[in-house]
Specification:
Shape: globular
Number of strands: 0
Structural class: mainly alpha
Strand content: under 5%
Number of helices: 8
Helix content: 55-70%
Order of helices and strands: HHHHHHHH
Largest sheet: none
Length: 219
C-alpha cells in the first residue's frame, strides 16, 4: 500500500458517541415575515416530536414526563388534522380552539401551555450545560436549576416529589453530549439548535400574554 492511499482521519470523521446528536434534529421554525411572523404548525409538531424523542433517552424513569409531552403534542396534532389549511399556523389554531370552547383550558390551548413549560425546562437545561465552563460530568444541578425556574412554580407537592426522584437518575454529560474528544460539533449543533428553540418559546409566551392565555394553577 502506497503512502498516497493512506489519508489521515479528519476531525469531522470522528464518531461522537452521544445519546443525543443535535445535528440530526430538525430545528424549530424560523419566525420571520415570510410566514407572517407566525409558527408553522406542521413544522413545530415535527420538531417537537424529535426533541421529545431525544429527551426519552434520559431513561425509563422519565417516561411519565415524556408521555405527558407526547400527549400534549397529540392534542395539537388532532386539532391540526381537523383542518390543515385553516390551522397552518399555530397561533390561528390556538385562537380558533379558544374561541370555540367555553373553557379553552381543557383543550389544546392548555396542552400547548404545558408543553411550552416542559420545553422551557429542556431548553434551560441544555443551555446550562453549554454554559458550564467546567464541563462537569454531573448534570443534576443543571436540571434542578432549570426545573426550579420553569416548572416548579406550577407543580404541587406530589409533582415536586416525583421530579426529585427522577433527577437522581440522569445520564452523565459525556453520555448525553459525547466525550470531550469527539463532541465539539455536537456542542456547536446544540448551540445552533437552541437559538430557534428559544425563539419559538419566547414567541409563544408573547402570544399567550397578548391573548391572556396564561394560567398559573398547579398540577
Amino acid at each position: 500500500m502506497s503512502d498516497e492511499s493512506v489519508e489521515p482521519t479528519a476531525p469531522s470523521d470522528v464518531v461522537c458517541e452521544a445519546k443525543i446528536l443535535f445535528r440530526q434534529l430538525k430545528p424549530f421554525p424560523v419566525i420571520d415575515e415570510n410566514n407572517n411572523y407566525k409558527i408553522s404548525t406542521e413544522h413545530f409538531l415535527e420538531s417537537s416530536n424529535q426533541i421529545i424523542d431525544a429527551f426519552a433517552c434520559f431513561g425509563k424513569l422519565f417516561a411519565p414526563i415524556v408521555r405527558d409531552m407526547r400527549q400534549n403534542v397529540q392534542k395539537i396534532t388532532v386539532k391540526y388534522k381537523q383542518n390543515e389549511p385553516l390551522f397552518q399556523y399555530l397561533e390561528d389554531l390556538i385562537l380558533k380552539d379558544k374561541d370555540g370552547n367555553a373553557n379553552p383550558f381543557d383543550t389544546v390551548t392548555d396542552g400547548l401551555l404545558w408543553l411550552k413549560r416542559a420545553f422551557e425546562m429542556m431548553e434551560q437545561f441544555f443551555r446550562n450545560l453549554l454554559e458550564d465552563d467546567a464541563c462537569s460530568e454531573q448534570v443534576k444541578p443543571h436540571l434542578k436549576k432549570a426545573y426550579e425556574e420553569c416548572l416548579l412554580p406550577y407543580h404541587g407537592f406530589l409533582a415536586q416529589k416525583a421530579f426529585q426522584l427522577l433527577h437522581l437518575y440522569l445520564p452523565t454529560r459525556s453520555s448525553l453530549l459525547g466525550p470531550p474528544e469527539s463532541n465539539a460539533d455536537n456542542l456547536k449543533a446544540l448551540d445552533e439548535f437552541l437559538v430557534l428553540f428559544r425563539a419559538n418559546l419566547n414567541h409563544i409566551n408573547e402570544f399567550f400574554t397578548k391573548h391572556d392565555l396564561h394560567r398559573t394553577y398547579k398540577a
